[in-house]
Predict the 3D structure of the following.
Amino acid sequence: MASTTASGREKRQGRRPKEPEGRMSLGQHLIELRNRLFKAVLAVLVGAVGGWFLTPFVLDSLRAPVSELAKVGGHTAELNFPMITGAFDLKLQIAITIGVVIASPVWLYQIWAFIVPALVRREKQYVWGFLGTAIPLFFAGCYFGWYVLPHIVGILGSFVSSQDTSIVDAKAYYDFTIKLIVAVGIAFVLPVFLVLLNFVGVLTAAAIIKSWRVAILCILVFCAIVTPSADVISMFLLAVPMTVLYVAACVITWFHDRRVAKRQAKLDAEYGL
């Protein structure tokens, strides 16, 4: 009876009811995931409405590397829309992508809240630390992807001779651009997840540091996927900052675990354990 009353009280207070052991059932996890996804998608759609009006500026910026390619290479280079609906589809894709970027604070929080749902009051401050670090890093990653884009377009376009014409499919070009920009933005956030999972006791610094070979390999594979295989320079331009962020996560978690161990040793000494 007391358990039923407590469950009802949790529902009225907007909290997720748990089992007597404090764990959520599979059904409750799925409901929680659905609610988190709904909030994230709603935020993206709201951002996409505003992003619709920014699409001309973004499209002009995306067209700039192709126009520069024509000037440097001495041949015609332009975006091409092979289908009558191509321009509208591209504008809609750009608007949704802008919505993803604008709504990043919301969906980043929803991801974190789903991964680590049961935080004590002291640990809730980690949420603000996560958002305060993850959001700037996401934007920094997107900017870095945007920064290397002209470099990649210039290298790949340099293989076209001056006697030829470079007709770039607009949708394929945009898909490549977004894969680069958004993927790098998300990759820059992953080390923050490692740090926060360490702070709440899910991962230890030893486990993170021990997996450094796997981490470096994953970084190189990721960079090889999001950049063209012929452009090794851009691949390493992306790999270097991602590796630095991983090393920084290792250092932060190591200091945190060391501090926790000292605090625990002090408490053990005080209580004679």
Summary: The radius of gyration is 24 Å. Residues 232-271 form the longest helix (40 residues).
